[in-house]
Design brief:
It is a single chain. This protein has 184 residues and is an alpha+beta fold. Among the domains are: 41 residues; 87 residues, 2-Layer Sandwich (Gyrase A, domain 2). It contains 5 helices and 5 strands. Strands 1, 2, 3, 4 and 5 form a 5-stranded antiparallel sheet that branches. Strand 2 and strand 3 form a beta hairpin. The N and C termini lie far apart (116 Å). 7% of the residues are buried. Pfam families: PilN (PF05137). Keywords: Membrane, Transmembrane, Transmembrane helix.
Amino acid sequence: MMILNLNLLSESRKKEICLFARLGVLKTLLIYAALILILLLLFLPLINLLLSEQLNNLVGNSSLIGSGHGTYNHRVLEINTKIKNINLAGGQFSLLTPRLLEIINTTPPDIQLKYITLNLTSTELALPGTALTREALLNYEQILKKTTWVENIDLPKSQLLQKKDVPFQIKLKITLPKIEENCQ
């Protein structure tokens, strides 16, 4: 058996039918796209409402978190203040240890120093102690005068009245070293 396909339509009519079929598919696609768009537009206010609630909850929680960390913030502020003070103190830094060692090393054996007091505001060094003799104390004053960084030596004459076991307190006015001197 033989199948015959007779097409009695003209070529222009065939093109029209093909065009109508394509238009039908396009129409169906546009309808589906419109339905999807309508569904999205219906859900948009719902999504907006949910997002605004989430934002309000987040803002409320952040205020609770911020109030809970107030003590930590205060502690961090204290630590930052201490660091700032340390940096300020470092700006006034000068190396005094070699100079104090120089005083200790130049002290004769017949002079006994009790302690050394340093006053940075008046740049004054106090050396209280006891000398075996008055001559030893005067000799120590001469040794201190040879020190280049000592500006003034104050040894009260009333302390020179005793001949032996002379208690004294020498006050030295000193020049503080500059930071540049320390770096060399």
